[in-house]
Amino acid sequence: MRFTTWGESHGPAIGAVLDGCPPGIALTEGDIQPFLDARRPGQSKFTTQRQEPDAVRILSGVFDGADGKQRTTGTPISLMIENVDQRSKDYSEVAKAYRPGHADYTYDAKYGFRDYRGGGRSSARETAMRVAVGAVARRAIPGVKVTAFVSQIGRDEIDRANFDLAEIGNNPFFCPDAAAARRWEILVDDARKAGSSLGAVVECVAEGVPAGWGAPIYAKLDGDLAAAMMSINAVKGIEIGDGFGAAHLSGEQNADPMRSGENGPEFSANHAGGIAGGISTGQPVVCRVAFKPTSSILTPVDTIDRDGNETQIRTKGRHDPCVGIRGTPVVEAMMALVLADHMMLHRAQIAKR
Prior knowledge:
alpha+beta
């Protein structure tokens, strides 16, 4: 299963093409839209105020089955979302100088010119299409449940003693700790009012992944998962399981002890994050993804223009004070896409025994 996206932040539309989706899966625009609604901008003062309905259209790859339901045909699925609330004039200053931390300079260095309106392809707007194709991928792995949540904003982490997944839908931060969500309201709002931004950590858990998905060397499940998460705009780090924390443990502390259970091995720990030797263990697959603070800020920052002249820049417009918040559905989508791909790779390689 492979996808590509197209379009720019301030172009007429954005879209994606998903190849390799199995045929016969019931799929309508209504199956995709709820996930896009979770990522949609302008739903609280803690995200960008750009008003985009993000209404998805399926352009190809589905047809009415014998049962009257719209189903995938096995051919490429093309999806499209129209952009309706662009304000390109907000980026007049960006056309004159580079925003530090953004892709302005590197795009110019590579291509010799750039689309300065909202960052073009480097804009987080592109991630809407990842959420759309991720919704399709979920339909291919119905036995797997993927859940992501924000576990940290800035230096403020959730308290695991207060952990309750039911709280995720009760606040605008996808936060499982009600007390942390109340603190974050002040934290993020202060950053917004100051014209600054904050980073965040998004944790993602996939339950129901059977043992055996992945490969020992060149198609490691954790390797593909890391690549997928790092491809998300603004992501600067990923941990599988304990991640960097494993470096602080001894061998016996880091081991995931096993005992025989009624339905196979039972583990008393999951430091490995559900993946060992590049292959799933049957435990929940767990990763944490670090989002940097939004680079588009109102606070003046030293920079240069294209001619090398030193200046300062402040980015006007509507931007997320913490891009990691709306990055949560994107992380879920990328987890679903990687798992769906590995499910099919496993099915193709391993005959029934």
